[in-house]
Amino acid sequence: MHIIHPRKEAFHLKKFIFTILTICNMMLIFYFSNQNAEQSTQTSAWFLQFLPFSMHFIRKLAHFTIYALLGYNTLYMYKNYNIKRFALIALLTCILYACSDEWHQSFISGRSPQITDICIDTIGALSMILLNLSIIRRKR
To answer: How far apart (Å, rounded) are the C-alpha atoms in residues 136 and 140?
Structure first.
């Protein structure tokens, strides 16, 4: 009979949860990037009814936010897999995904890749990773 320690079980659950969240986050980014120009504009316009900003600002805020979430999810995914330099690997994952996302958009009608979007994505991921690193270090 095997007895599973509750802490070990929680550790495996965290690995599973953050892996699923990371994959879902990436799928959501892919979904939004797969929208043609008209669909993308409609999605952004929906948010305009709640936020008093320009369409351009809403789009850039969306980039920052969804990659901040990806930074959070990848950070804790790699941390729970006990990967050394998990923060650096999380950031590199986000940057590479941002690059592949912009490349993907080059194949979508009315869309084009933007280096500025990669920079905004990276800043979003980096800010969330650094924020959570400081929280992790405080807990020690």
So the answer is: 7
Rounded to whole angstroms, the Cα distance separating 7 from 11 reads 6
> How far apart, in Å, are the Cα atoms of 140 and each of 21, 75, 82?
25, 17, 16
Q: What's the start-to-end Cα distance of the chain, in Å?
A: 35
pLDDT of 1 > 70? The answer is: no
Residue entry with tokens 């592949």: 100
Q: Return the pLDDT at 5.
A: 60
Helix, strand, or coil (residue 84): coil
pTM: 0.91
Distance between CA atoms of residues 30 and 140, nearest Å: 36
Mean pLDDT of the chain: 93
- Decide: residue 94, CB within 10 A, 0-12 exposed, 13-18 middle, 19+ buried: buried
Enclosing H/E stretch for 19: helix 6-33
